[in-house]
Amino acid sequence: MARKKFTLEYIIRSSPSILFEFVTQPSNMAQWFSDYCDSQGDIYIFGWNGSYQRARQAEWTEDEFVQYHWEDSPKDEFFSFKVYKSEISNETILEVTDFAEQKEIKEQSFLWDKQVEDLKHAIGA
Question: What integer pLDDT is reported at residue 2 of this predicted model?
Answer without folding.
Answer: 79
